[in-house]
Amino acid sequence: MKFPKLKGKAVLAPMAGVTDVAFRALAVKYGASLTYTEFISSTALVRGSEKTLGIIKKDKSENPCAVQIFGGDLKDMADAAKILEKKFDIIDINCGCPAVKVIKIGAGSILMKEPKKLAKILSTLTKEVKIPITIKIRAGVYGKKNAVEVAQAAEKAGASAITVHGRTLGQGYSGKADWDIIKKVKKAVGIPVIGNGDITSPEIAKQRLEESGVDYIMIGRAAMNNPYIFKQINDFLKKGSYTKKDSMEQFREYAVLAKKHKLDFQLIKEHAIRFTKGMPRGARTRDKISKCKSFEEVNSVIKSSALCPYQ
Ligand SMILES: Cc1cc2nc3c(=O)[nH]c(=O)nc-3n(C[C@H](O)[C@H](O)[C@H](O)COP(=O)(O)O)c2cc1C
């Protein structure tokens, strides 16, 4: 299946504990051209886990929306894909997660060590469902940067697009993302490539797109306290300039969406803490927020912190 042509160049990365349905809807409002759920276990989904069903909530504005899965059991992955194709536009297979509990079951980044196993998963899933199956990989496993080899095997097995985070498994989040390897993957395959890693500003976004030739870029951590970055990137690519938006205003919009989707208060609180990152007196405000027991309390801390322009 062909990967859809996206309306903009920048997509929102899957981030566990961050990219809940309200956060994704806010990113779409600001111009993200594709959103991903955080990764879910295909086995947990097939078994009907309440938590997993909560994660795969989708907002009407998310169009297209990808669901990311991981799993160690091929039948469960295929069964999960059949459930998910009714609701999502794309199914992405996580091939980058370093967590021991994920690697232990033969999933996540360990799949980069076993391109044949990954190819089998892809060829099975692409036969089972009618929506595009994509993968998200790293530059390589430990010292070995085998992203090109993995990407070529994945394309052959039917993947519709490939996202490359330019760090190896061994790097975790340290060091820099290697955009040369991302560029090599783009040159080596015919399907769309999404480049990911360390894009923190519209200027860097433009430079990465131009230098690597990737079809799209994926933004993770830089969107956590500034989902408005999608509008900034889109504006900068179009007209060479962009505006800023106060992060508390962004949080307020997030909170409205989170309430609409009846999200857990704990999630809202964690986002409030993230949105205050990098602000004057942020540490004191974060400490106060962490003690709050209701949304109203969070709101009043933000208002009284003098960080908020709408007091
Ligand atoms: C809190 C957090 C959670 C993440 N969860 C996922 C996940 O569920 N699936 C995934 O493929 N990557 C996950 N990632 C990795 C990001 O999608 C992305 O590849 C990485 O952060 C590099 O991009 P960045 O430099 O723009 O942040 C996560 C990253 C963070 C910081």
Topology at a glance:
Blueprint: E1 10-12, H1 21-29, E2 35-36, E3 40-41, H2 42-46, H3 50-55, E4 65-70, H4 74-84, E5 90-95, H5 100-103, H6 115-128, E6 133-140, H7 147-156, E7 162-168, H8 179-188, E8 193-196, H9 202-212, E9 216-219, H10 221-224, H11 229-239, H12 247-260, H13 265-275, H14 282-290, H15 295-304
Helix pairs in contact: 1-12, 4-6, 6-7, 7-8, 9-11, 12-13, 13-14
Written overview of the protein:
The chain is α/β, with parallel strands linked by helices and 311 residues long. It has 2 domains: 10-239, Aldolase class I (TIM Barrel), CATH 3.20.20; 247-304. The chain is 45% helix and 14% strand. The protein contains 15 helices and 9 strands. The protein has helices at 21-29, 42-46, 50-55, 74-84, 100-103, 115-128, 147-156, 179-188, 202-212, 221-224, 229-239, 247-260, 265-275, 282-290, 295-304; strands at residues 10-12, 35-36, 40-41, 65-70, 90-95, 133-140, 162-168, 193-196, 216-219. Strands 1, 2, 3, 4, 5, 6, 7, 8 and 9 form a 9-stranded parallel sheet that branches. The longest helix has 14 residues, at 115-128. The radius of gyration is 19 Å and the shape is globular. The termini are far apart. Residues 307-311 have low confidence and may be disordered. The site of flavin mononucleotide has 21 residues, from helix 10.
Give the SSE string.
EHEEHHEHEHHEHEHEHEHHHHHH
- Name every ligand kind in the structure: flavin mononucleotide
Compute the number of structural domains. 2
- Point out poorly predicted stretches: 307-311
How confident overall, as mean pLDDT?
Answer: 94
Discrete helix count: 15
Going by CATH, what is the homologous superfamily of the largest domain? Aldolase class I
Distance between the termini: 50 Å
CATH-derived topology of the largest domain: TIM Barrel
Number of strands: 9
How does the helix and strand content classify structurally? alpha/beta
